[in-house]
Every structure is written in C-alpha cells, then in structure tokens.
Amino acid sequence: MKKYFPKTFLYFLLAWLVLNIVQSAFTGIIYDEAYYWYYSQQMAWGYFDHPPMVALLIKLSGFFFHGELGVRLFSTFLSAGSVLLLWLMIDAKEKNKYVPHFFLLLFSMALFNAYGFLTLPDTPLLFFTALFLYLYKKFVAQPNWLLSLALGLAMAALMYSKYHAVLVIVFVILSNLKLLKSVYAWVAVVIALAAFSPHFLWLYAHDFVTIKYHILERPNHAYDFAEFTLGYLLNLIANFGLLFPFVYWALFKLKPKDAFERALQFLSYGVILFFFISSFQKRTQTQWVIVLCIPLAIIAFNYLITHAKSREWMKNLGLASLVLLCYARLWLVFQPLLPFLVFETHEYPWTQQLHAIVGDTPVVFENSYRRAPMYSFYTGETAFSLNNLHYRRNQYSIDSSEAKLQGKKVAYITLYANKGDFTYTTNKNKTFYGWYIDNFESYRKLLCTVDTDVIDLNQPNQIVKVYNPYKERIPLHKLTFNVGYLNKYKKLKEKLPLPFTLQSDSERELRPKDTTYIQVNFPKPSRDDIEYLKFSISENGLLMGINSPSIKIKE
After folding, report:
1. From the CB of residue 117, how many other CB atoms can be counted at a distance below 10 Å?
2. CA 10/CA 271 separation, integer angstroms
3. Where in the chain is the domain with CATH 2.60.40?
4. CATH code, residues 447-553
5. CA torsion sign, 357 to 361 to 365 to 368?
6. 3-state DSSP call for residue 337?
7. For 208-246, how does the pLDDT look when each residue is reduced to its tens digit (9 = 90+)?
8. 422-438 pLDDT, tens per residue?
9. Cα Dmax for the chain
C-alpha cells in the first residue's frame, strides 16, 4: 500500500471521503436526484432518460441508510475511487512530494466536487471513465485476456452510466488505431456488447424510447450565440473554476510520450470539439463536459510537477477556489449564507407544507417529473406526473405509476390555474393551485399513429390509428381529440380540436389491447412556421396529453 499511496495521500483521501459523506447527509436532495431515486423504486435495465447505473447506486445506498445519505452513499465511494485511480495513473516519481497540490487541483474542479456527493448519471460516468483509462493504460503496456475482460466490463459500465460514455470510448480508439488490429481489443468490445445487451433488449422492448427522445424529441430553439456557443465556452471555464487557465494551458503544452498520454489528449480535445460543434445546433449543459475532469486532472498535475512557477500560482488560485467552494458547500446546507439565492437543496420544505394540506391523498402533479418524486421522497406518499402537450414525456409516461391511481381520489396540482381548493407556496414565492378529483382517470398511454412519415394537411379523410394498451374499454365520450402544431424546433405553437368520424358508427369506445381507426380532416394552423404535428387526447376535461411522436408536415 505504501508503495502506491503515501500516508499523506491516504489522510487527504479519508478527509475527502468523510467530507462528502457528511455533506451528503446534511444537504437536501435536488430535483434530479429525486427523479433518479424514483427510478430506483422500480429497478429495470433502462429508463426513459438514462441507462440504469444511477438507479443501481441509489438502490445500493438505500440498503444502508434512509434519507439523503440513502441516495448518495455509494456516490461518495465512487468519488473516492476516482481519486485513487487518478493517482495511480500518474507515473511521475516526484508526485509524492505534491500530494497537497493534487488534492487542491481536484478540489478546485467545481463539478468534480459536486459529483463527490450528488447522485446523478455523471457520478458513475466519472468513476468508470477513470477505471476505463486506468485499465487502458495497463492494456497498451501489456495486453492479455484478463485485461480484455476487465476493459470490456469497464466499457459496459461506462455505457450503463450515461450515453455520453460513447465519446470516451471512441476518442480513445481514435488515438490508437492499432487497436483495430488487436484480437485482445476486439474481445474487449465483444464482452462490452454482451454485458450491455440487457439494455439493448430493454430499448427494443420500449421502442427505443430513450434514443428517440434524445435524438428526435428534445425541444430546441433558434441559434443564439450568447446562449449556445458562448454559454458552452463558459461551461468549459465553470468546470475548472479559477484554475481553468492553468488546466487548459497544460493541455495545450502536452506533447504525448506514449499511447496513454495520446489517449488523454485525444479524449480532451475530442470532447471539447464535439460539444463546440454541437453548440451551433443546441444549448449544451455544463455537466455534458464533466468527463474532461479525468484526463485534464492527470495532464494538469503532471504539468505542475515539472513547472515550479505554475505550482506557485496554481497553489494560490487553488486556495482561493478552496475557500469559495467550501463556502458554497456550506451554503448548500444553510441557505442564509447567501440569503438572496435559493437553490434546489433549499426547496424541499414545500413538500411538508403540501403534505399537511392533503394528508395521505395521492398527488398528481401536472407537467412535473421533478416535483412528483421530490414529494414522494420527503413524504413517503404516492405522487404522479401527468404530462400534457405543453411539456414532455418522461419515466412516468412509460412505467406502471398511472395504473396505481385509476379510480382513486387525488389532489391535482397544476401550473395553469389561478384558483383551486387549496394552494401552497415554495421558498421562491411561487404559488401552486390544486383541487381534489374524486375519481381520477388517465389514459395518457393511448397511441395515435399514421402510415406515413409525412402528413399532408390538405389531403381529406386521412386514417389515424388509435391503439388502446389498457385492459379496459374506453368510452369515446370521455375523450377529446386534438392536434398540436409545432415549429421546426419542436416547440408547441398552436393546438386545435381534431374532429373525427369512425369507420363504424357502432364503435363508441376504444377496445382493450386493440386498434381503432378514425378518419380525420386536419384543421389548418393559423401560423406559417409550423413543420410538425402531434396527436393529443384529453380525458375528462384535463389538459391535452402527448399521444404521438412529432410527425413531419408536408410543405
């Protein structure tokens, strides 16, 4: 152990781990964590938005603790593991002299710190990126069958963490095309695909819902330099805080000595350029480039070991970052430290306020896959997100949660009302209205399809197929059919009633597990910027659902 980890390193690592465990226990859950906690309540090989690794981490944490630490415990372990692997990948003989600099460098990386205790898909992505690179370093030095197995499983774990993992694998391969001639490398790929096959099967069984959403259905808007490209460049800075000039200068000055350093270089530049190009099409999120923390931590630390001047000002900037990030960590727990800012970790008290009003009545949140799981997490009560045409589909759209509320009395919370049976107010002074529904019925899984990829709005008497996946018959008088018109960025711009006739006048209901054919004449949108449409069905007077993917309209 002493050969690889000096005592000073182990002391710092223990402090890192303890700090993150304490932070985990006393920091409120953020909305995305609550959503992934909801994933973990129904373990599966995949979920609407992401692969299942984040749900597994939460499930494992929940075996040992309840509350916030029951969501985050294993994230703190993975964070410590990432630090260990980073240290092992640094070969410089003098590194033991600069253990404080190493931890100061890591502590200056804002998101690397955040994912030291938050449980999000990027948390395992960071760890398995570090593990993959560690194994790859050994693999290029001396490949063997055991390393092929380990590398294959690491690649599968990467992909189970987040789909962005494909960038890590691809750019490492591009850095060393000789791998394409290596039997050991191909065996690793086969093992990775075999290990990842349960998720492929899940995707197939769910009509590739995750891929379709991320590639085809995510809304966007017209290019805006400040929001898209400039915002992306600021994200590159935000990931490394005050040390960003040093980190990127170290990358710029890197002259790879071997295949491993070339992999670090390709991965760093590859991710930066990939999302830079992407920024001309859509807004990028700060965490999308979080994977850069792994290769750049190695590159930057190696640079500071051999450059005394860099060590000095890196230490000064690192200490300033340390102070700021420690204050930020405290603020996540104690909001009065920055009284003018309310973050998600401070917002959860609204759940108790609402619970005091509705008691054990299940709550239906309209258009909020974030508030529904947050409410369930902090109250232990049933909650559901009912999504309509103004929003997007999510995990609540494809799992069994809707069925649990059918026919029950629910408290219905909406964003689109200014009166109701009750109200509650969040820390951000946002008021929500709600009312009670005695016999809740929802049919948001009804699916409308057409036998064409492009719809001609001028063509009369077009056939639309309506599939009823439910076990019961659904009377048509409970349903209202509509069409939503979207612009080229998939933003809803207009919604209109969709009159229809049935092929048979005797059909006044949708048969269970069967398809009903209706005949429609599409109403003309009043706008000129319409390029897509979605079918939408509302039930019992509720706002319109999302009952089809976006379908292209013929010009």
Report:
1. 26
2. 31
3. 447-553
4. 2.60.40
5. positive
6. helix
7. 999 999 888 877 788 888 888 999 999 999 889 899 999
8. 999 888 888 899 999 99
9. 86
